[in-house]
What we know:
This protein is mainly alpha-helical and 375 residues long. The protein contains 18 helices and two strands. It is globular.
Amino acid sequence: MKPLERYWFGEVALARPYLLVRFVLALLAFDTWLNLIPEGAKYGVGAFNVAHFQWFDDFVPSSSFYLGVLAFTGVLALSQALYRPHRIAIIFVAAGYTLGWSCSLLDSMPYHYLLSLYLACFVFFPMLSARAAFSRSERAPTGSAWAYILFCVTTATVYFYVAAWSAAEGKPYWLPMVCCVGYLVSTMQDRVALPALKVAVPVLCAAPIALHLTTPQSGWFPLYMIGISLIVFAPTSWLHPIGRALTRPARNLVEERNDGGLDERASQVFYASLLGLATAPMVSMFVDLPGVKTGCTLTAIAMLFVMGRQLYLTPRFRPLWRVASLFAGCIALWVTVTTSTARLDYYRNGALDAESRGDHDAAMIYREKVDRYAR
Length: 375
């Protein structure tokens, strides 16, 4: 292979893409619920909108639409983090998340662009099971994963632009440049038998950690980047046993004998899965936020589409695990919103915005909700 081909298609430890997808998807779910839902009351006011893209300005998203998109994206993302992800589901997550931030400049978090790029990379990641990423032996499974390399190159490009901007502003730029080089070099640590490289790459992890801890940044961006750097830069000798320990329950749970063909369990799995898909969105009725029930219902429909023929033509319990992950996502949404200040902040922000516009009737409705959930 040519050097460029070896770089893009060389082997990497499969634990890295496995953990990377699940970490980002899980964090993204709670990020949308805790940080974006409180701002949803401002959407659709005055039938006026300025989108991130000019061709999108004519679309005016309502508050219900925005919160429905957040519920859909978060629940589906978390369900994919909890069980083996499906490529179609990742496409839905990427589309929903990108639609959520791009439909209005009210969402001005700069790192949302980067997360959409990450989700686009995840579409082409290997859809690995826990047993495929973490073997029973001490040897870590490896394989070609060009999308993982693209993920690291994308991250390196972002750090390069940060370094260039810092240099143009007359600020120190060596730290983001070290981050850039580190991500480009880290992709080779699993296939290049150079002791110096295997020692240097974990040390380079200190650069992104120091950068994101010492530089003021918005939202949960430091959490994303520090977690990503720990997965990308960690030596395989550390990452593999940690991953094996984290996934041991999942590996034991789904370990079934595949004899091929259908058996008497197929119809039971089929009807149980349909029942689960129908009842999971009902959990969202207790959230008491506009659009959330619709969003969770659409998530169940998307999950039905993702499972497709697998829902009936498999003798194993895989559809039940997917439905269980959907249930867990809906319950996590309910617990997160009701135990945090996200719902209270949504109604409080809505009341303040309505009062500033002189809409006292709407402000009164919001205030009643604030009084109910402030107790």
